[in-house]
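DM from R.C. (forwarded with permission)

"hey, sorry to bug you on a friday — could you get me a structure for this? deadline for the figure draft is monday and I only need the backbone to look sensible"
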Amino acid sequence: MQPLRVYSVVPRIPRPLSGLWELANNLWFTWSDQLTALFAKIDPELWRDVEQNPVLFLNRLPQKTLEELSRDQFFLDRMDSALEEQRRYLERDAWFLPFPDEKKGEPVVAYFSMEYGLALSLPIYSGGLGILAGDHVKSASDLNLPFVAIGLAYQQGYFRQYLTPDAWQQERYPASDFESMPMELVKNEDGADVVVSVYLAEQELKARIWKVAVGRVSLFLLDAHLPENPPHLREVTSRLYGGGVEMRLWQEILLGIGGVKALDALGLAPKVIHMNEGHSAFAGLERIRIFMNDCKLSFEAASELVASSSVFTTHTPVPAGNDRFDPEMMRPYFEGYAKSLGLAYKVFVALGREDPRDDSETFCMTVLALRLSRFNNGVSKLHGAVSRNMWKRIWPQYPVDDVPIGAVTNGVHMPTWVASDMGQLFDRYLGGNWREDPDCGRIWLQAKTIPEAELWRTHERLKERLISFVRIRLRRQLEGKGARYEEIKIAEEVLDPQALTIGFARRFATYKRANMLLKDKERLIKLVSNKQQPVQFIFAGKAHPQDNEGKKLIQELVQLCRREDCRYNMVFLEDYDMKVASRMVQGCDIWLNNPRRPLEACGTSGMKAMANGVLQFSTLDGWWDEAYLADNSVGWAIGRGEEYADHAYQDFVESQTLYTVLENEIVPDYYDRGHDNLPRSWIAKMKKAFMELGPVFNAHRMVEDYVNKAYIPAIRNYNQLVADQFKASKELAAWRMEMMTVWGAVQVRNVTAEAPEKLYVEEPVILEAEVQTGGRNPEDFLVEVYYGAVNQDGNFQRRKTAPMAPDKDLGGGWRLYRGEVLPQNAGRFGFTVRVLPHHPLLIDPRSLGLICWAKPEQ
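My reply, with the result:
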C-alpha cells in the first residue's frame, strides 16, 4: 500500500540559524576545515553517524539543540564567519586562467564521468576514477573555470562491504535518500521537475536532474527513479557498475546521450566536452546528431566540429577494463540512431572498432571516444606510452610513439586530502597560498623551514588518531558480528603508535597484488614480531562483487591478520571508503603500492599520502615512475621498472625485493633516532617530498594542464569552425573527403642526402625528396624528415621530425621537397621521409589516418 501523497518534512530552523542551510547545501564544506569543524562541534557523534552529511545532520538535530544554538552568540559568530568566508569564495569573479572571449557565468567545458568521489555523504563513487573526477571538479571550482559536470544519481551507489566469519566479502546496497543529501531537484519556471528522455530500443527512459553545488561548479546528476518509468528501467540509476552488460549499455546511453540532452534542457551550451573514461563516449555522437539536426551539417562536418572540441581521458591500461558490447546486442538500441546520423548500421559499428573492416570485432567505448576526440591522454607519462601501444591498431600506419595519445598526469586536491593539523602547519610555514596555488614551487620550497620536531610531532598526532580510528572501527565491526568479549578487547589494543606503520589500501584487483606480502610469510611474521624495531600493517580495500579471485585475496589476508602472532600488528578495515582512505593517507608512515608494472594507470592514493608526509614504497608504475628519485630521497622503489613475461617469476622476484628493502633500508631508517628521538633522515625525506613532489602532483596543476593543452585549444577550434554559419566546418569536411579520395596516389621517391661518409655531431644533412601530390596544392601536405637515434635492429630509439619545404614543380604531379637535419648525438643515426595531410584547421593530421612513408629503393 502506497500513500496518496508524500511530503518532505524539514526541521524548524530558528531564524538566527538560517545560514546553516546555505552552508549545508554546498560541498565546499568538504575542503573547508572551518565549516567541517562548525558542524562537527555541535554534536560530534551525530556528525559521525550521518557520515558528515550536513543536510541529514540538521534534519536529525533535536529542536531543543537548535533553539539553544540560536541563543549561543559564540556559535552564531562562528557561523557568520563561515558564511562570510563561503560567500567570499563563491562571489570571486576573477578567472585564474584565461579563456578566450567567453562570458562570465556561462560554462564552456562540460565534464562527463560515470562516478564522482566528492564527499562521504554522496556515495556515487567506487574508487580512483571517481575520486579523481571529484578532485578535478573541486580544482575547477578553486580555479574558477567556466565548468559544469554531468553524471548519474545512483540510489544505491557502490556496494558497502562486510566480511563473513570466514572472511569472505559480502555486499550490501543501502538506498540513499537524495532529499536528505546536499543536492536539490532542478525545476523549470512552472515549478515542475526538469526531465529528459532517451530511448532504449522502443522503451522511453525518463530522468529528472539533481543539482549538486561543488563550490562554484554545478554537478548535474540524472536520476531514472521516476514512477513514469517501468521498474526495470528505474534500475538504470540504482547501482554504480551494477547489473549485466546490457545494464551497463543502458547506463552509458543515459550518461552520454541523456547528459547532452540534460545540458540542453538546462539552457547550457558548453563548447567543449571532456569525457572522463569511455563510459560517456555516446555524448560525442549526440553532439554530432544535434549539429546535423539543428544546424543542417553533414555527418562529416559535424563529426569534425565535435572531435575538434572534445577531450578524452583514458584511465585503464587493463584491456578488460574497457567496455565492449556485442554489435548484435546493440542493434535494437542504435540501428535507428545510426540512421539519424545518416549512417548504415555497419558503418556506425565501425566507429567503435579498432579495425573498422573486422566484422567479428566488438564495439569498444574507448575506441569510439578516441575517434571522436582530437585531445586524447593517459593519466601518467608511463600510462600514455602504454595507451599508445594498446590502441595502435586504430592508427596502423603510425609507429607506436606517434599514436595520438598524450599524457596529463593526475593530481590530488590538496585542501581535501591534507589533514587539518598538517594544513595548519603548512599555513604557518608555507603561508596560506598553498591551498589556492599548490602548484607553485616557490611555496613548497618553504617546507625546508618547518622545524623537524614540529613536523614529526604533527605526524605522530595524525598516526595516533589513525590508530584510535582503527580501534574504534574494529570494535564496531566485531560488535556488529556478535563477536566474543575477548575479541573485542583485543581490538581495543591493536597497533602501537610508536611502531613503523605501513598502509595498503586499494581495490583488490589481482594485478594490484595485495598478496605480495604473503609470498614469504616467514619474513613477514619476523617483521611484525620484532620487539626492538616493530613493524605493523593496516589494510583496506574492496573486490568487485563478481571478482572471486579478488575476494580470495581479501580472505587470505584477513585470515593471516587474525592469527595469534599477527592480530596485534596486522589489521584489515572493512568497507573502504573516503573516510578510511583519508585517515590512512594522513596517519601511516609508509604507503605501500605494488601493482604489476605497467598495469597501474596512475595511483593517486600515493599522492594523497605524500601530501601528508607519508613516504612511498612502490613499484615504478603510474605516477611513481615519474616521481621516484634514484637516491631514495623521497621514498623507495620495488625494482627498477623491469617488466616480465612470466608473472609468477615477476611476483617472486619483486616480493623478495620488497622484503629486502624493508629489512635493510626502510626499517633501519625509521628507527635511526638521535638523542631527541627524532628520525632526522626520515624527516628530511618527508620535507624533500613536499618540496619536489608537492608542486607537481596536485589537481590544480593537472587542471591547468588540461586548460592549456586541451580546453583552450578546443575552444578556439570550436569558435573557428562555427563562425560564419559553420563555413569552416563545411570546408574542412569537404577538404577531408577530397584528401581521402586522392591519397592513394601520394608517393615518395628519390630520397637523397648530401652528407659526407663520416658525419659529425650537429653537422647539417641536406635532404631532397620527390613527392607525388596527385595534382593537389603543396599547402595540402606536410612533408617531414623523420630522424633520430637508431638501435642495433635498425629501429628508431628516439625520433624527431623536421619540415621539408616545397621546391620546384617537376611535372606530372611530382614536386621536389628540401629539408635539413642536425644529428644531436654521436652514434647510429637514421632518417626517412613521410607525408601527412595538412590544413590550417586540422588540429592533428594523424586523425585522418592518412600517411605515406618513403619506401626503400629497390
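R.C.: lifesaver. The chain has a mean pLDDT of 94.
me: no worries. Residues 309 and 713 are 8 Å apart (CA to CA).
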